[in-house]
Amino acid sequence: MTDATRANVPVALTIAGSDSGGGAGIQADIRTFAFHCVHGSSVITCVTAQNTLGVTRVDALSPQAVVAQIEAVVKDMEVRATKTGMLLNQEIIAAVAEQVEIWGLTNLVVDPVMVSRTGAQLIDDDAVATLRERLIPKAAIVTPNRYEAQLLSGLEIHTLEDMQTAAQRIYNLGPAAVVVKGGGMSNHLRGVDVWFDGETLKTVTTVTVDTPNTHGTGCTLSAAIAANLALGHTSPTALKLAKDYVTEALKHALSIGHGTGPVGHFFPLLPL
Predict the structure, then answer these.
(1) What is the pLDDT of residues 79-107, one digit of tens each?
(2) Is 37 a catalytic residue?
(3) CB 230 within 8 A of CB 12
(4) Closest by alpha carbon to 181, among 208, 163, 198?
(5) Catalytic position from the list 21, 25, 85, 216
(6) Is position 206 annotated as part of the catalytic site?
(7) Which parts of the chain have pLDDT scores under 50?
(8) 179, 142 Cβ separation under 8 angstroms
(9) Does 154 qualify as catalytic in the annotation?
(10) In this structure, are residues 227 and 36 in contact, taking their beta carbons and an 8 Å threshold?
(11) Annotated catalytic residue: which of 82, 214, 220, 260?
C-alpha cells in the first residue's frame, strides 16, 4: 500500500460511552470501523463499569472535555461520517449538537441511546428533549429501537403499522431519514426494521439469528451505517450493508462472560 492509498482511507468519528466489557459503545464502534477499513476516531462522553451482566457505574465527562476531543479530531482530520451513541445528559447533548453545527459534520448517524431494549429509560426527560430538539434534526439517519421510537413519536408500538407511523412522526423532527429498529419487537417482527426518508416507506429484513449473545447490536449497526457512509455509499445502501454485517456478526456472536455476550465484530478472523 502506497502513502497515497493510505491517505485515501476515510475517517469516521464515534461520539459515545466507553464499555469496559468491550461489547458495546466506543469499543464496538472502533472494531466495526476497522472491519470496514475505515479509520476510527473517537470522543468519549462517559466511562462505564460494565460487563456481560450489566452496568455497575457510569461517570460522565465534562462537556468541555467532550468538546476538546471533538476539536482535536476535526481540526486535524477530514471526518467523512460521525455517529453518536450514549451522550448521557443534557449538557453533553447540547455541546455535541453545537459542535456538529460549528464544524459542519455531515453523514451524522444518531443512535438515540435513551431507552434499553428492555424498556428502561437511561437518560432524563430534559436530555430527551434536547436530543429531540437539537441533535436529531441534524441527523442523516436516526436509528431508534422500539422503546426509543415510542418516546420520540409518542406512540405505543406493537405492530408493523405502528412502526411505520412512528418512523413518519420521527421524520417530522427533522432528520433526513429514520430507521425504527425491530430488535425489541416480538415474533415475526423481531429484526424487521422500518425505513422512512420522506418519500420511501419500506421494511428492511434479514435472516433472524437465534442467539442469546446480542450485546452491542445497536451500537454496531449505527457504526456500520456510518462506516458505509464514510465509504461513499448512499444512505439506503449503507443501511442494507450494515444490516448484513450485523447479521453475520450475530451468527458469530461470542459466548463469553456469564451474561449476554457481544456480537462477533471480527468474524472473518475467528477459527472455523
Answers:
(1) 999 999 999 999 999 999 999 999 999 99
(2) no
(3) yes
(4) 163
(5) 216
(6) no
(7) 1
(8) yes
(9) no
(10) yes
(11) 214
Q: Residues 23, 83, 138, 181: which is the catalytic one?
A: 181
Active site residue 219: yes
Closest of 143, 133, 130 to residue 222, by C-alpha: 143
Q: How far is CA 212 from the centre of its chain?
A: 20
Cell, residue 208? 433472524
Q: Which amino acid is at 124?
A: D
Residues in CB range of 68: below 8 A, 6 or more apart: none
Decide if 218 contacts 111 (C-beta within 8 A). yes
Q: Does the predicted model carry a pTM greater than 0.85? A: yes
Compute the CA torsion angle 65, 70, 72, 76 (nearest 10 deg).
Answer: 180
Note the pLDDT of residue 272.
63
Active site residue 75: no
CA distance 157 to 222: 21
The CA distance from 16 to 42, in Å, is 8
Catalytic residue, chosen from 21, 40, 191, 218, is 218
Take residue 245 and report the three cell numbers written for it.
Answer: 454485517
In terms of residues, how long is the chain? Answer: 272
Cβ proximity of 79 and 85 under 8 Å: no
Catalytic-role residue among 48, 84, 130, 217: 217
Question: How far lies 32's CA from each of 42, 131, 176, 204, in Å?
Answer: 13, 24, 23, 21
Please identify which of the residues 219, 243, 260, 261 carries the catalytic annotation.
219
119 is catalytic: no
Contacts of 79 (CB under 8 A, 6+ apart): 11, 12, 13, 41, 73, 105
**What grid cell was written down for 164?**
411505520
| Span 237-258, pLDDT tens digits | 999 999 999 999 999 999 999 9
